[in-house]
Design brief:
Helices cover about 25% and strands about 40% of the residues. By secondary structure, the protein is an alpha+beta fold. The protein has three domains: about 180 residues, Efflux pump adaptor protein, beta barrel domain (Elongation Factor Tu (Ef-tu), domain 3); about 60 residues, RNA polymerase II/Efflux pump adaptor protein, barrel-sandwich hybrid domain (OB fold (Dihydrolipoamide Acetyltransferase, E2P), Beta Barrel); about 70 residues, Orthogonal Bundle (Helix Hairpins). The strands form three sheets. Strands 1, 2, 3, 12, 13, 14, 15, 16, 17, 18, 19, 20, 21 and 22 form a 14-stranded antiparallel beta sheet that branches. The chain has a four-stranded antiparallel beta sheet with strand order 4-11-9-6, with no helix packed on it. Strand 20 and strand 21 form a beta hairpin. The protein is elongated and about 145 Å long. The chain starts with a helix and ends with a strand.
């Protein structure tokens, strides 16, 4: 009884194996990959082109970021509360425009004290100058001793030094007082504001960031192996997909120092003020490398079904579908063929 059950189990297992093979096409004729044989079609009115080979440069694309070459991070040079705030992020400003005002009451008092000190020093200076002139006349007339004249001369020099020191203190007070009025260093756009009206600004605290929109450029890092193809003046293409911008430009600068960790070099290429460009946008910089011979055909002749690409070819008097693998899209509507076609093949362009 046990042997019979084992025999039944073995037969069942074999049946299941044969069924799986049948489902997977194990008993069907397989068509070889790379080419599909279709029913023969008339070829008396078929138009074809001969697959050609052209010389083209290789292309490398690297990611980058839009940055402003001329950008300023404006920080407080004196401490105090923000009394007035004239701009916000996105505001356009001209050189010298007032951006914000810092309350600097203590500095105003300091300026008033310096003015009073200078006025007093000037009075003393004028008095000693008059004494010096009078004593000089007396000394020339030999009416006083030289020591008396020298003492007056020393008092005059001391008064003059005191007046100069007082003037320097006043100039310094005026300078510090001017720091309370923060103005734009150049024409530009406020990209960031990090302080609000009423906030306390400490010396060195960042207040605003301004950039010149005319100085925007693409900054990208490329592998150091591409250094021979990256030089100042070399043509590159910059694409910013978020704004659907694509423009040709030239490399402005190649940073000579390599990044030791990533083994890359940084290149900078200016942009030309397209609408919507702002610092921080992601972009792609593309440049050409060494030239090579590649097979190309018009891209319109390549048909795609999912990830499968194919073209129709005339082979030994028959029209066949040939599976291909494409590469780069080139100029004039042509596309690179990496595999599936050879030089001299006839690709069907039209059939009437």
């Amino acid at each position: 009884m046990t042997k019979f059950k084992l025999l039944i189990a073995a037969i069942s297992a074999l049946g299941m194996i044969l069924m799986l093979i049948w489902i997977q096409g194990g008993f069907s004729h397989k068509v070889s990959g790379g080419e599909t044989n279709l029913p023969k079609e008339p070829i008396d009115k078929v138009k074809t082109i001969i697959v050609e080979q052209v010389e083209t440069s290789g292309e490398v694309s690297v990611s980058g970021t839009v940055l402003a070459r001329d950008s300023a991070r404006i920080a407080a040079r004196v401490g105090g509360y923000i009394a007035e705030l004239k701009v916000d992020a996105g505001s356009m400003v001209k050189k010298g425009d007032l951006l914000l005002k810092i309350e600097v009451g203590e500095l105003e008092e300091r300026k008033a004290q310096a003015e009073a000190a200078l006025e007093s020093a000037n009075v003393d200076l004028e008095k000693t100058r008059q004494d010096l002139e009078r004593y000089k006349t007396l000394f020339e007339e030999q009416a006083i001793a030289k020591k008396e004249f020298d003492d007056v001369s020393a008092r005059f020099e001391m008064a003059k030094a005191t007046a100069n020191k007082a003037k320097a203190a006043l100039d310094e007070a005026k300078t510090f007082l001017s720091y309370g009025l923060v103005t734009a260093p150049f024409d530009g756009i406020v990209s960031e504001r990090t302080i609000n009206q009423g906030d306390l600004a400490a010396v060195g605290r960042e207040l605003l960031t301004i950039y010149d929109p005319k100085s925007l450029e693409m900054v990208a890092a490329a592998g150091e192996q591409f250094a021979p193809f990256l030089s100042v003046g070399a043509p590159v293409t910059v694409a910013i997909s978020s704004l659907q911008i694509k423009e040709n430009t030239l490399i402005r600068e190649v940073v000579p120092q390599r990044d030791e960790k990533t083994r890359t070099i940084t290149v900078k290429a200016p942009l030309h003020g397209a609408n919507g460009l702002t610092p921080g946008l992601f972009g792609v910089l593309t440049f050409k490398t060494a030239s090579s011979l590649v097979i190309v055909i018009p891209s319109i002749l390549v048909k795609s079904v999912g990830q499968i690409e194919s073209v129709r070819v005339l082979d030994k008097g028959e029209i066949k579908t040939r599976h291909v693998k494409t590469g780069r899209a080139l100029d004039d509507g042509k596309i690179e063929i990496l595999s599936g076609l050879e030089l001299g093949d006839q690709v069907v362009t039209e059939q009437k």
